[in-house]
Amino acid sequence: MRLGAAAWGTKEDVATTPSTDQRFGLARHVVLPGPLLLDGGASFGPVEVAYETYGTPAPDASNAILICHALTGDQHVASTHPITGKPGWWTRMVGAGKPVDPARHFIVCANVLGSCLGSSGPASRAEDGQPYAMRFPVITIRDMVRAQALLLDHLGIRQLAAVVGGSMGGMQVLEWAATFPERVRAAVVIASAARHSAQNIAFHEVGRQAIMADPRWKAGDYYGAEPPAAGLAVARMAAHITYLSEAGLTEKFGRRLQSRDAKSFGFDADFQVESYLRHQGISFVDRFDANSYLYITRAMDYFDLAEEHGGRLANAFRGTRTRFCLVSFDSDWLYPTTESRSIVHALNAAGAPVSFVELSSPFGHDAFLLDVPELNRVVDGFIRAGEA
Question: Which of 41, 163, 176, 185 has an alpha carbon within 20 to 30 A of 58's alpha carbon?
């Protein structure tokens, strides 16, 4: 969907407020003046960005790596989450001795525009002092990337050694390589796609409708009252099914009941898989905002990198000097290997250097977040090759 022209405002001197050290990371929050000209035509500013950094920048910041998070992720990539108390969402990839290592790299991970963990989003205060709610402007993946570019300007990072991300994070990586090719030396795209299929959009719409059908949603004006927790939980449950594989669900749960002795034959969670999904939904509402879910899923659905470049995906990478690494998983039916192969073909057509591998895993789409040692070896080798 073509939403309009693209640009971003100039940087002014602003204050960055550090908060608590978490493990080896530092949580920060910055207000950037913008204005940020969005794809939809709105001029937005100031832009708040919550982010974390790990490691020490080289004198020229040439060791900087940007980590891009997925739909329900956040900036707490390798540090304890302040709400859940759980370890960072990608400690398997980011940390001491890992492919992205603070001993070698200066790592930045920012909460995306439109989210709810400190960056500007629907829950943020507008000029009238009230939450934006549904007055927040429509955003795209490219808008998220431009906001990240403003942050990197503020940090004095002109070029990135690598941009790394999975799922929606991979979409951001692709957009970084297409919009700011001169700023990206290497791009790692894991379990992602250059656009959403009709099936992807359909699953997201089920989730959005669940949220909007919740009486507590109140057309988005629920701040200060009970949030639409039931609708958001159902949205999370529906989405979570797409993150798993049939084989993985069967192995983990099968048709096992909660109790071997009796069944309720009602609407309680008779099956273990039901209980698992309900737990996923209930725990999710404690850390995420329903309106942010609406905005970010819509941004993912709008994403179509080929359309942004005249309808031909190869045009997005024409003349690029960025090195690319793409990884897919054989059990991922949300973003199957065919999606990664289409990107690889476009990169080949554009003459861009690209490596590609399909890994075997029973974990479905979520494999990029779970224990897949081969993924670490692939990413580690690719990043080290650029450091040689």
Answer: 176
Half-sphere exposure of residue 154: CA atoms within 13 angstroms, side-chain side: 28
Query: Three-state SS string across 329-373, please?
Result: ECCCCCCCHHHHHHHHHHHHHCCCCEEEEEECCCCHHHHHHCCCH
The pLDDT assigned to 261 comes to: 52
Record: fold of 199-296: Rna Polymerase Sigma Factor; Chain: A (1.10.1740)
pLDDT of 229 over the 50 cut: yes
Q: What angle do CA 316, 321, 326 make, to 5 degrees?
A: 65
| Count of residues in the chain | 388
* Rounded CA separation 272/43 (Å): 48
The neighbour count for residue 205, using CB atoms within 10 Å, is: 14
248 membership: H or E segment, kind and range: helix 246-252
- Closest Cα partner for 138 from 305, 299, 9, 308? 299
Copy the structure tokens of residue 378: 């692939």
What does the alpha-carbon distance between residue 146 and residue 139 come to, in Å, rounded to a whole number? 11
How big is the CA angle at 215 (ends 213 and 219), to the nearest 5 degrees?
75
Distance CA 324, CA 302 (A): 23
Q: What is the CB neighbour count within 10 angstroms for residue 15?
A: 7
- Please determine, looking at this structure, whether the domain spanning 7-196+304-387 carries the CATH number 3.40.50.2020: no
Q: Is 167 helix (H, G, I), strand (E, B) or coil?
A: coil
pLDDT digits (tens, 9 = 90+) for 99-120: 999 999 999 999 999 999 999 9
Element holding 149 (H helix, E strand)? helix 141-155
* Amino acid found at 161: A
Q: Is 236 annotated as a binding residue?
A: yes
Integer-rounded Cα radius of gyration of the chain: 20
- pLDDT for residue 3 is more than 70: no
79/26 Cα distance (integer angstroms): 9
Q: Where are the domains of the chain?
A: 7-196+304-387, 199-296
Catalytic residues: 167, 332, 365
How many CB atoms lie under 10 A from the CB of residue 246? 12
Q: Which pTM was predicted? A: 0.92
